[in-house]
Specification:
With about 120 residues, the chain is mainly α. About 35% of the residues lie in helices and about 5% in strands. Strands 1-2 form a two-stranded parallel sheet. The chain starts with about 25 loop residues before the first helix and ends with a strand.
Amino acid sequence: MLRGVNLTIESGERVLLEGSSGGGKSTLAALLVGLRTPETGGDLLERMPSGLMQMVGETGWQLSHGERSRVYLARALLQNAQLTVLDESFAALDLETLKRCLDCAVKRARMLLVIAHP
C-alpha cells in the first residue's frame, strides 16, 4: 500500500512515468487531474461491482489499458473455445506482464492465434 507520498512537478519540468502494467500509472494520472479521489488499495476484481462480468470501456467501468487487456484475456480463455484469437491483445502490456499473459494463454487455449505488430 502506498501512504504518505508527495509529488511535486515544477513548472517547465517534464516527467516520464514508467512502470509495469497495472502498477497504478493511469490511476495516478486520474488522481492528479481530479478525476478520482484517493482511497485505499484493493484487488481489481474486488473493486468492480460485477467482478469479471463488469462492463468495461467507454460506457462501463474505467480501467487502464493494461487492466482492460488482462480482463479481456481472462474472459476469452474462460470461454474454452476451440480457437482463441487475440488481435493486438498484448499491445498495452509491459514486457513482464506480457510474458505472464502469453504463457497463460498458451497453457489454457485449445488453439491460439495471436496477432501482433513487431
